[in-house]
Amino acid sequence: MEKLVCHIKEHSFLARLAARRMNSEQLAMVIGKTIHLHGVTRKEFLRHPWWVRHEVCHIMQYQELGLLPFLWRYLWECMKVGYYANRFEVAARAAEKNTTITNRVVFS
Ligand SMILES: [Zn+2]
Questions:
Q1: Distance 36 CA to ligand 1 centre (A)
Q2: Distance from the alpha carbon of residue 86 to the mean position of ligand 1, in angstroms
Q3: Å from CA of 1 to ligand 1 middle
Q4: CB atoms within 10 A of CB 53
Q5: Residues around the ion ligand 1 (C-beta < 5 A)
Q6: Average pLDDT score, the chain
Q7: What is the number of domains present in the chain?
């Protein structure tokens, strides 16, 4: 199966803004194929398989819909039903238990 090359960006400015908004000390967020981190190092992040699976699920959502359509729908969901009930978050939380979701993923 084809590999999915993903990136990890530590000390991300975007993740810092999101963390402030979410009132969270540690935060990971995905833009395209890059996981942006705030308050957590790449090494610490990768130590939590459930967390990696969650973010990889978001990467796959981007792959499926495309960058802008995903962002648009994600934000629309957040406005309509909020963060927790956002269907992309519901799917990503379910993916936390999916041990095979990272099979194709290679972190650069
Ligand atoms: Zn999420």
A1: 12
A2: 9
A3: 25
A4: 21
A5: 89, 92
A6: 97
A7: 1
The predicted pLDDT at position 1 comes to 78
| Res 28: pLDDT | 98
Q: What is the pLDDT of residue 9?
A: 98
- Asked if the structure places residue 58 within a domain, the reply is yes
Closest CA to 8 of 92, 48, 32, 100: 32
108 falls within a domain: no
- Taking 70 as the pLDDT cut, the residues of the chain under it are none
* Residue 18 near residue 71, CB atoms below 8 Å: no
Task: Determine the distance separating the centroid of ligand 1 and the alpha carbon of 106, expressed in angstroms.
Answer: 19
Instruction: Note whether residue 37 is domain-resident.
Output: yes
Residue 77 in any domain: the answer is yes
Count how many Cα atoms sit within 13 Å of the Cα of residue 95 in the half-sphere of its side chain: 21
Distance between CA 73 and CA 96 in Å, rounded?
Answer: 21
Ligand 1 mean position, distance from CA 54 (Å):
6
Rounded to the nearest angstrom, the distance between the alpha carbon of 47 and the centre of ligand 1 is 17
